[in-house]
Design goal:
By secondary structure, the protein is α+β, with helices and mostly antiparallel strands. Helices cover 42% and strands 20% of the residues. It is built from 16 helices and 18 strands.
């Protein structure tokens, strides 16, 4: 909003800086710091942002100030435990006197005074809630906002250097500003390695803070200064443009796929008012529309587009037909596998190829993995050269590659009751890709799920493809995932491609992937693919699918050795 509404930018920034010290959530605090570093363009705004950051950090250096506060707190507790004679403790009313018997048998009276102690519910003086927001985060070991704070301080220092150049005493002011920024970063680095915080600062954050300190020490470096001054904002604008383009493409795709079920001028048909037998087989088609479509040349009211879509659906159905027995078996069987969200329905066509009547014919199925047979199929009696359809339902509890196998058992009419015949069926492999659909999510959701998912499957990349973009499209095709990384981030001539992908199963399980590949000087693609999910089954199954698919692509032949290298090897062998 602050980028798309430039007329409200100044007021929004002022309101954000006024309330910055009250923000105690790391994510919101990091976003506010980034906005202050990007859009504080005037010297007044830069100084206001710096004062609010100092207010959120507190007294500097952090370690020394915390040590002094701890020493003062310890001294105060010692004085409270042993008060001086000049400071009389607060006393309450005397307790009732008790009469006791001394050792010599005489009676004595004992009395006592109770001292009022301060309530412990008030909490210690140095509690985390009393400290500034950023200071409390770093003392608790949360350094997620430290890199954002470092880049914000660098941007503010570079902008203050530009704005103060026109002032009479601009150089000392800008140098003092940079020195204050370096003091803040040095205090955070010292705190991260001192052991005073709950957790130690990690190496990645430490390295990024050190880079920002180097930029502050040498602000005249054109490369690093240009990155913080221009390139960061340009990258943000490209990201917004790519996001806006994706939203427009999604709207266009939705408008193309969305078809009006009923036009505005179509007649409304009330089936309850139609007389019985008005249409064949209970069809609800309008006879006028059917005749009109037939007059236009379409058969039974179906347009050319409808016929093509129907043929496509028929081809999809044919791809799910599995032959279970051979043509020479006494019983021929084939199954159509209909995969739904929580179950698999098998429509098995059974053909009697014998001259006998088959009785008590049924299908016995067994499943592997997370597949469970819902109910046992019913028995049938089939006449010679007749057929029947048997339906079986299999429940699916998770996304995993499963196997269905079994046999057909039957009796021959007129034979002995003990003669039970059996025909073994071919296995039906349920592919995990039938349950995986592409999905999209924001970068924050991807990072959050990536950090919380427990199962990871890391696989090497072995392929014969020589284009990084082609390999990304190939990976999307075999895993049925969608690339979340923008096209602007993927368009690079560095020979390195890093992309994030996401998919979702029909059961609501998310699957994430990170593709990191590089094109070597020999023209080969090397790298790794990391697949993460909340459950083990989907991560392992996607890994198996990826391994089997990429093994089908042959590797490129290795380059022959140069003639000079071959000659050198031959000379070495001769010398030996």
């Amino acid at each position: 909003a602050i980028e798309r509404l430039p007329q409200l930018r100044e007021s929004l920034l002022n309101q954000l800086l006024d309330s910055f010290h009250m923000i105690r959530t790391p994510v919101v605090s990091g976003a506010a710091l980034w906005i202050a570093g990007e859009y504080a363009h005037s010297l007044k705004q830069v100084q206001q942002a710096m004062s609010e950051i100092q207010r959120a950090i507190g007294e500097l250096p952090i370690v020394e100030s915390e040590a002094r506060a701890a020493a003062a707190l310890a001294a105060g507790e010692f004085e409270a435990a042993a008060p001086s004679s000049a400071e009389a403790p607060s006393l309450s009313a005397p307790m009732p006197a008790k009469r006791l018997v001394a050792a010599d048998g005489t009676y004595i009276t004992q009395s006592a005074l109770s001292q009022a102690r301060p309530s412990a519910s008030a909490g210690p003086v140095g509690s985390r809630s009393d400290k500034p927001a950023l200071r409390a985060m770093y003392l608790d070991g949360d350094y997620s906002t430290a890199p954002i704070l470092a880049s914000t301080l660098v941007k503010l220092a570079l902008r203050a250097r530009e704005l103060a150049a026109a002032e009479p005493n601009g150089v000392p002011v800008s140098n003092a500003f940079s020195a204050q920024c370096m003091l803040i970063l040095a205090s955070i680095l010292h705190l991260g390695r001192s052991g005073l915080a709950t957790a130690e600062i990690d190496d990645d954050v430490h390295e990024r803070l050190m880079v920002c300190v180097r930029v502050l020490a040498d602000p005249d470096d054109p490369i690093l200064a240009g990155i913080f001054r221009r390139d960061c904002h340009h990258a943000f604008l490209e990201m917004l443009q790519a996001q806006r383009q994706r939203e427009e493409e999604a709207k266009v795709a939705d408008s193309k796929n969305k078809k009006a079920a009923i036009q505005a001028d179509d007649m409304i048909e009330f089936r309850q008012l139609k007389p019985k037998g008005a249409s064949d087989l209970g069809s609800t088609e309008d006879e006028f529309e059917v005749s009109l479509q037939r007059a236009k040349g379409a058969s039974d009211g179906a347009s050319a587009e409808g016929e093509s879509s129907a043929s496509a659906v028929d081809m999809t159905k044919l791809s799910r037909v599995f032959q279970l027995t051979g043509f020479s078996d006494p019983i021929y069987a084939e199954a159509y596998v209909n995969i739904n969200q929580y179950d698999i329905v098998l429509d098995v066509l059974v053909v009697n190829q014998t001259n006998d009547t088959l009785q008590n014919l049924t299908i016995e199925l067994t499943t592997m993995s997370d597949l469970k047979l819902g109910e046992k199929p019913s028995t049938h009696t089939i006449r010679p050269h007749d057929f029947c359809t048997i339906r079986a339902s299999i429940k699916v509890s998770s996304t995993d590659t499963g196997t269905i196998f079994g046999n057909v058992v039957y009796d021959i009419a007129g034979s002995a009751a003990a003669d039970r015949n059996c025909v073994v069926l071919n296995d039906i492999h349920v592919d995990i890709m039938d349950y995986i659909v592409p999905t999209s999510c924001s970068d924050e959701e991807f990072r959050s799920m990536w950090a919380t998912f427990d199962w990871e499957n890391s696989l090497p990349v072995l392929t014969g493809l020589t284009s990084l973009t082609d390999y990304l499209h190939y990976f999307e095709k075999i895993t049925n995932m969608k690339t979340l990384t923008t096209d602007a981030a993927l368009m690079s001539d560095s020979g390195i491609l890093v992309a994030n992908l996401a998919a979702k199963s029909l059961f609501g399980e998310d699957a994430l992937a990170n593709l990191s590949i590089e094109l070597t000087g020999e023209g080969r693609i090397v790298g790794r693919v990391r697949i993460r999910s909340r459950t083990q089954g989907i991560a392992v199954a996607l890994g198996k699918k990826f391994t089997l698919s990429q093994s089908s692509v042959p590797l490129p032949p290795s380059k022959p050795a140069a003639p000079a290298e071959v000659a050198a090897e031959n000379d070495g062998e001769t010398a030996e």
